[in-house]
Amino acid sequence: MAKHEGKENKYSIIIPTYNERLNIAIIIYLVFKHLKDVDFEVIVVDDGSPDGTQDVVKQLQQVYGEDRILLRARPRKLGLGTAYYHGLKHASGEFVVIMDADLSHHPKYLPSFIRKQKETGANIITGTRYVRNGGVHGWNLMRKLTSRGANVLAQTLLWPGVSDLTGSFRLYERSVLEDVISSCVSKGYVFQMEMIVRASRKGYHIEEVPITFVDRVYGSSKLGGSEIVEYLKGLVYLLFTT
Amino acid sequence: MKHVLKIMALLVAISAFWIGLLETSVVPRSYTWLLAIYLIVSLGCYGLLMVGIGLMLFPTCPQEAVLLQKDIAEAKEFLKNKGVDVGSD
User: Fold this and answer.
1) What is the ipTM of this complex?
2) Does the distance separating the beta carbons of B78 and A156 come in below 8 Å?
3) Could you tell me the pTM of the whole model?
4) Which pairing describes strands A170-173 and A10-17: parallel, antiparallel, or unpaired?
């Protein structure tokens, strides 16, 4: 796809939400704060949140403009992968950013994603928590251990070419996202892994930028036995199908 | 080529090399299973080493939590003045 030399690119930021009434307002404020000279739109894909998330989004539209904040809701919880797909259908930018709504992904890193993409011409920029200028806050030792073990296992089996496989703070060229997302079938964080591994296998140019990740979910993200089993199943699936 | 085929090709190549060594008596027959054991053990040690090192060098960012709280306060202030409902949930 020909790059529009000299023309500013537009960035579509897709944020899936479920019961993020307060966080979505803060995230949108921070996005607008850190992307002052950038042509972008925010697409909120809300899965019928009962806590009034959509009402808050409508208020934010009054503040920032309905052309800058698009609310594309769905009737109920329908999963992350389909949320991205749904948002993508309404995106008008040449580039698409996906990020979480719970403030674990800070919008202040958006300029560094954009800058890295311009510098390298990469198809995908993925945020990594596991390098020196990145980091995680809010994980106890056990959580760090499982994360590290999972990462080493995935690196050994899959040779993915990225340091953070389960991260979901990414910038994609729009056509690349459309191509990759259509071939992914997993759910949850295995979906994020499948996306980046398939992209890597297809030969797309992937670069990383360090990000910090603040886990505010009380008690830190639950990683029980069933999550670990799901992860291992996901790894085996990716090993044999990518 | 599917990734798993690359790994299998690698294993087949190593096995072929090893069998070659056994056949030409460079390596005694009694050592037949040594390669498999050696590979598995080194892989296990490598894995544990990587996990241990990674755990020791795990990047943390406690200051980010503080900065985030500041950002949240700033956002709430701004949005409240603009009529957005930012009462605590």
Assistant:
1) 0.84
2) no
3) 0.89
4) unpaired
